[in-house]
Amino acid sequence: MGSHSPGRFPLANLVSKSAGLLAAIPQSIPLLALRIALAVPFFFSGLTKWDGFLQLSAGAHFLFEEEFRLHLFGSAIPYPFPIAMATAAGIAEIILPILLVVGLGTRFAALGLLVMTAIIQITIPEGWANFHLPWAAMALTLMVFGGGRLGIDEFLHARSTGAV
Fold first, then answer.
1. To 10 degrees, the CA torsion angle through 131, 133, 137, 142?
2. What pLDDT shows up at residue 132?
3. Residue 39: its pLDDT value, please?
4. Residue 85, pLDDT score
5. How would you classify residue 148: left for phi > 0, otherwise alpha for psi between -120 and 50, otherwise beta?
6. In this predicted structure, what is the pLDDT of residue 4?
7. Which segments of the chain have a pLDDT < 50?
């Protein structure tokens, strides 16, 4: 009963070899994919907030002044300083995704998008399962693991340690 011949469990061998191949994928590839996947929805949302350079769109004005509410303690509270909030959101939704894609300040950019996700969650509570939960999971993963080797962070780190 001790040893089994390799040919006796072909499915188990196939699964084992397949798992080994999948584990051999460089971590930088899925981290890059996560950076892009998190950046895209925020960047495109940011584009909708502008009619030109630092010129908020009429839609952004309307949403933050009239439509959006913070759902806290059973109440729907209007945004404080709605134009300042719209401007900050619009700037962050452009800059943070760009930082993520190029891999510069990845952990901090992900933290910024996690905070934005939390604010979006209390603004649009019904979006948690389809949008906010996956965004938060992606942001948390990037905060913990960083952006991987395919980014400026890694290049700067290598230069500062003399590895390049």
1. 50
2. 96
3. 98
4. 96
5. left
6. 52
7. 1
Number of Cβ within a 10 Å radius of residue 47 = 12
Residue appearing with tokens 């404080």? 80
- The whole-angstrom separation of Cα 9 and Cα 113 is 47
Tokens of 3: 């040893």
Phi, psi for residue 90 in degrees, rounded to 5: -65, -40
Q: How far is CA 90 from CA 8, 16, 50, 96, 158, in A?
A: 60, 47, 7, 10, 33
Bridge partners (DSSP) of residue 55 are 52
pTM of the entire predicted model: 0.85
75-78 and 69-72 beta bridge pairing:
antiparallel
DSSP 132: I
Q: 106 near 59, Cβ under 8 Å? A: no
* Residue pointed to by tokens 């188990």: 12
Smallest Cα–Cα separation from 25: which of 154, 149, 152? 149
How far is the CA of 77 from the CAs of 59, 69, 112, in angstroms? 20, 5, 23
